[in-house]
Structure formats: structure tokens, C-alpha cells
Design brief:
Blueprint: E1 13-15, E2 24-29, E3 32-41, H1 48-65, E4 69-79, H2 85-101, E5 105-113, E6 118-127, E7 143-146, H3 152-160, H4 166-177, H5 181-189, E8 194-197, H6 202-214, E9 217-221, H7 231-236, H8 242-255, E10 259-261, H9 267-274, E11 282-286, H10 288-300, E12 306-312, E13 317-320
Parallel strand pairs: 4-5, 9-13, 10-13
Antiparallel strand pairs: 1-2, 2-3, 3-6, 4-6, 7-11, 7-12, 8-11, 9-12
């Protein structure tokens, strides 16, 4: 919707409307830039505290996708007038404690009356101007890594339809609550060339943005895609969000014959790759020489990461077995 506006020309604005990315980056000094982003959405779970924490983790993920560190955040929210204040306090508490976990602090915010509850953050972070990660940094030969499994979209949809078990939903909640802080640290330490976080446009949608911005292509190995426990079964039941079909149509429209799905890849897996995610993982690329160290770095920090494919010179996306 902002594309008709002419991107503001400013030498200090390193990343803005001129190229689509996860956050804006503004240089303050030769060795310091701020990262700015905003994100908010309606409840994805019933528990108020957990919703606030997930929304905060999701918003801060854009800072991590740029290779930044979280400094502080402003809360942005809308609540029905009749919603109990105790519930609202829990939403804010969940968000504040998640920001504190990231090493930041809630510094203020703004609320309005809204019939549909919404909560999120405007997050400010910091990054060195020469070490900003963007969607357009992929290089042919790079290895692709994903820091979280797929499946939050089908699981939360299944929960809304009362067909997701409590343990399956809890697995998705724990994934959504996990910060991409470690992922950003490892990506930066290993000299990542490009990065983004997997959210509303799904894996294929966000990878498509990276491919278009970088002028290269990618091969994704379906057998290596990590999937949350219970997500595949729910996908086979058709528990996809409305975003999945929109995402797939968009990628098909942009790439056309340049998007190929191997005949041996089950359609349900291809659909999972297009499904919207909430607070999904960081997708990043590193040079082949650094690839073997990435998984070790994650393991040393007590987290998982998954090598899912590689970057190719041909401007295409291929989902192979």
C-alpha cells in the first residue's frame, strides 16, 4: 500500500521503502545504526499472557532478521471497552517479559478502543551499518538454514477448529515463544549473506522475496524441512489458514514456471511450505565454508537449526525431494 509513495531519499536511511525488507535501518554514526519495525495482530492463542509474549517475540524477530540487537519497544494495542482490565494487564505483562528476555525494555506505547483485540510492538534495535543483513544478500553457492520448524499456522488453525490436541498446540506455542536472538547471533558470527524471518508469507513467500531481491535462486529439499509435531497430520486434514492459498497464488504469479515442485514431493508438504507462520524461524544463508559450523554453534547454545537447501545462480525456486 505504501509503494505509490516515492521512497524518501536520505543518505542516512540505509534500508527503507526503496527495497522491501523486514525493518528500516537508519545510520546515526559511522559505527551505529538503529533498526526500526512495528508488528501487531489479533490473538493466536486463548491465554492473554502467552498471546502478548508471542506477539512481542514476533515483532522483535524483524530486528533479528536485520542482524540487530533489541534496545527498547513501544506497545501498540486495541481492546474492546468491555474487556476486563486484568486480561489486558496480562497481555502487556507477557509482552514486557518477553522484551526483557531479549535484553530490552518497554518504554511506552499507545492504545485505542477496538472491537477486535490487537497487540504488538514498535521495536527499536541497533546494528553496525556495515553488518546489516538484508533479504537481497543471497549468493550462489550459499547454504540455507532455518532456525525453527514449520507448522504454527496449521496448528493454531486446528486449535481454533478444536481439532489440535493440547500437546500439539503447546509445541507450537513453545516454538512461537522462542526468540530468534540466537539465530541472529550465529548468523552474524558466521558471516551470513542474507536473512529474513518466516511469518505471514510462509517459507516460499519470504524465500521468494529473497530470491527476487538477490537476483539468484534457491533449491529447497523437502525431506530436510523441519515440521512441528502434529502439524503434518493437521495439514493432511486440511487445517490450513486462509493465508496459505493466498501465499501460494502470489508465489505462482510472481515466479510462474520458475517455481517447480518435484512430483515426488507430497502436495501437503508444498502447502506447508506456503502456509503462514507466526513468530517463525530465521531463514539465512552462509558461505559453504561456514555451513558446517552453524549447527554446532546452535547446539552449543542449546537450540536447533536446520540446513534446508542451497542458493543457485538460476533465478528460480525448486522444491525437491
Amino acid at each position: 500500500m505504501l509503494k505509490p509513495a516515492d521512497p524518501a531519499a536520505h543518505e542516512a536511511l540505509l534500508v527503507g521503502l526503496g527495497r522491501a525488507d523486514d525493518a528500516a535501518v537508519y545510520r546515526l554514526a559511522p559505527d551505529l545504526a538503529i533498526v526500526e519495525t512495528v508488528d501487531f495482530f489479533p490473538p493466536v492463542v486463548d491465554d492473554a499472557y502467552t498471546w502478548g509474549a508471542i506477539a512481542a517475540a514476533n515483532a522483535m524477530s524483524d530486528v533479528y532478521a536485520m542482524g540487530g540487537q533489541v534496545l527498547f519497544a513501544l506497545a501498540i494495542a486495541g481492546f474492546p471497552r468491555e474487556l476486563p482490565k486484568a486480561v489486558i494487564r496480562e497481555v502487556f505483562r507477557g509482552g514486557a517479559e518477553k522484551v526483557a528476555e531479549a535484553g530490552g525494555v518497554i518504554a511506552g506505547g499507545h492504545t485505542v478502543v477496538d472491537n477486535e483485540p490487537k497487540y504488538g510492538l514498535c521495536v527499536t534495535g541497533r546494528v553496525h551499518p556495515d553488518r546489516v543483513l538484508t533479504k537481497g544478500g543471497l549468493r550462489a553457492g550459499d547454504r540455507l538454514f532455518l532456525s525453527k520448524p514449520l507448522g504454527t499456522g496449521v496448528i493454531t488453525t486446528g486449535a481454533k477448529n478444536d481439532v489440535a490436541s493440547a500437546d500439539v498446540l503447546d509445541g507450537a506455542v513453545q516454538s512461537m515463544l522462542r526468540l530468534n536472538r540466537v539465530a541472529a547471533e550465529v548468523a552474524c558470527e558466521r558471516g551470513a549473506h542474507g536473512a529474513t524471518d518466516i511469518t505471514g508469507f510462509g517459507l516460499l513467500g519470504h524465500l521468494g522475496e529473497m530470491v527476487e531481491a538477490s537476483g539468484v535462486g534457491a533449491i529447497i529439499r523437502a525431506s530436510r524441512l523441519p515440521v512441528l509435531p502434529g502439524a503434518l497430520a493437521l495439514a493432511e486434514q486440511g487445517q490450513f489458514s486462509g493465508g496459505m492459498k493466498r501465499n501460494r497464488r502470489h508465489v505462482d504469479a510472481v515466479f510462474g514456471p520458475r517455481l517447480t515442485v518435484d512430483a515426488s514431493v507430497p502436495e501437503v508438504v508444498a502447502s506447508l511450505a506456503a502456509e503462514s507462520e507466526t513468530s517463525g524461524g530465521l531463514l539465512f544463508s552462509v558461505a559453504p565454508a561456514e555451513a558446517s559450523r552453524v549447527l554446532d554453534d546452535f547446539a552449543k547454545r542449546g537450540e536447533e537449526c536446520f540446513e534446508i537447501g542451497e542458493v543457485i545462480a538460476d533465478r528460480a525456486i525448486r522444491l525437491l525431494a
